[in-house]
Each structure stands twice: as structure tokens, then as C-alpha cells.
């Protein structure tokens, strides 16, 4: 299964952040204005992202912006989990996600992992960093 996130107009910024800060690779990003049916969509929606795909360590994350007329209710009821094997990499990833975000559980040793912590990034996406 591949997670697919919906953003409220800041999908491009989020995908670029994950590429810059986590080391993900942008595989594709299409604006609504570049789609074949763009003439049927209000011009103020053309810069929103219709579909984006990034990859990090073989894992894929897909995303888009909410379309006009569809209510956006935020990111709820899930967390994305990163599972580095190196504690230094876990600390780097956690710090990157925490920059402008909110730490909900500090990155620390637990009974199941060398390091574990939770953070909600600046885009409202909840993450777990679990270094076993």
C-alpha cells in the first residue's frame, strides 16, 4: 500500500520540504493547470498540485492538493513512519521534521527501539521515527 496525502494548497511546498530535508527524490509533480482538462477548472486552481510522487529509501509517498469544492479536514487518524537503522540518521530525520513542526514525543530510547519519537511537521502531517 502506498500512502496518499491531500494538502490544502501547500502540496508543492511539502513535497519540496521532504526532498530537501529528508533526502527524498521527487519522481513527478503535475499542476492542475497542466492537465488535459485544465480549461474546465477555475484559473485560481491551476497552480494547485494534481498529483505528486516522492521516494525515500524505496518507499513511495503520493500527494495532491484538495480540489475546489472538496472540504479539507486536515491530516487525521494516521502517522507516517520512518525506520532508519542508524541512530544519527534517526536524529537527523526527526530534527528535520520538527523544524517548524511540533514534537509530540521526544526522540528517546524505549523498550522496543534504540530511539523512537513522534512529531507533527509544519504541514500538519504526523510522523513516527523508529530506530530499532
UniProtKB/TrEMBL annotation:
Top-level taxon in the UniProt lineage: Bacteria
SUPFAM superfamilies in the cross-refs: Glyoxalase/Bleomycin resistance protein/Dihydroxybiphenyl dioxygenase
Occurrences of domain PhnB-like (ranges): 2-129
Name of protein: PhnB protein
Amino acid at each position: 500500500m502506498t500512502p496518499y496525502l491531500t494538502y490544502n494548497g501547500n502540496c508543492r511546498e511539502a513535497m519540496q520540504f521532504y526532498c530537501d530535508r529528508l533526502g527524498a527524490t521527487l519522481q513527478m509533480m503535475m499542476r492542475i493547470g497542466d492537465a488535459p482538462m485544465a480549461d474546465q477548472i477555475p484559473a485560481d486552481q491551476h497552480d494547485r498540485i494534481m498529483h505528486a510522487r516522492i521516494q525515500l529509501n524505496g518507499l513511495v509517498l503520493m500527494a495532491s492538493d484538495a480540489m475546489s469544492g472538496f472540504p479539507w479536514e486536515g491530516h487525521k487518524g494516521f502517522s507516517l513512519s520512518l525506520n532508519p537503522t542508524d541512530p544519527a540518521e534517526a536524529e537527523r530525520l526527526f530534527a528535520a521534521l520538527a523544524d517548524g513542526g511540533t514534537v509530540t514525543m521526544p526522540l528517546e530510547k524505549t523498550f522496543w527501539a534504540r530511539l523512537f519519537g513522534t512529531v507533527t511537521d509544519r504541514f500538519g502531517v504526523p510522523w513516527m521515527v523508529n530506530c530499532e
